[in-house]
Amino acid sequence: MSSSQSPAPQKGVFAALLRLLTRIYSVRRRLATGVAALLVLGVGFHVVFGQNGLIAYEQKRQDTKTLDGELRNLQRENDALKEHVDRLQSDPSAIEHQAREELHYTRPGEVIYTLPASDGSK
Predict the structure, then answer these.
(1) Would you place residue 1 in the very low, low, confident or very high pLDDT band (cuts 50, 70, 90)?
(2) What Å distances lie between residue 31 and 20, 27, 39, 41, 102, CA to CA?
(3) Would you place residue 122 in the very low, low, confident or very high pLDDT band (cuts 50, 70, 90)?
(4) What is the sign of the dihedral through the CA atoms of 104, 110, 111 and 116?
(5) What single DSSP character describes residue 6?
(6) 3-class secondary structure for the chain?
(7) Digit-coded pLDDT (tens) for 10-35
(8) Other Cβ atoms within 10 Å of 89 Cβ, number
(9) Which pLDDT score is estimated for 110?
(10) From CA 90, how far away is CA 95, in angstroms rounded?
(11) Crossing angle between the packed helical segments 54-90 and 92-103, to the nearest 10 degrees
(12) Whole-number Å distance between alpha carbons of 72 and 23
């Protein structure tokens, strides 16, 4: 009889061990899934809000557009000033015009009348 009773307890031990291993595997799988989810959330947060994330990228893009516009305006102004310098270096009438406007120079016999600035309150 002892030979017929010993396989039954072994089946119970193996079944309990199998249930324990299945439970451990299930817990380990849930834990790994949770860790992976936290890792994905952390990486996603860094991609959006990090030092070089999407928000910083968009701000830098806007800054680039603004600076490009300012650069174009300054280049236009620089070109106009170069043109003005070229005229002053080569055109005597441009030199005369500049002297009359800024220094109030006159030709002999001319008289300059200065009128009061209009205040526009009439």
Answers:
(1) very low
(2) 16, 6, 12, 15, 82
(3) low
(4) negative
(5) S
(6) CHHHHCHHHHHHHHHHHHHHHHHHHHHHHHHHHHHHHHHHHHHHHHHHHCCCCHHHHHHHHHHHHHHHHHHHHHHHHHHHHHHHHHHHHHCHHHHHHHHHHHHCCCCCCCCCCCCCCCCCCC
(7) 788 899 999 999 999 999 999 999 99
(8) 9
(9) 83
(10) 9
(11) 110
(12) 68
Phi/psi for 117 (5° steps) reads: -65, 140
pLDDT in tens, 36-85: 999 999 999 999 998 889 999 999 999 999 999 999 999 999 999 999 99
Its pTM stands at: 0.51
**In Å, how far are 3, 22, 24, 37, 48 from 34, measured between CA atoms?**
48, 18, 15, 5, 21
CA distance 4 to 98: 123
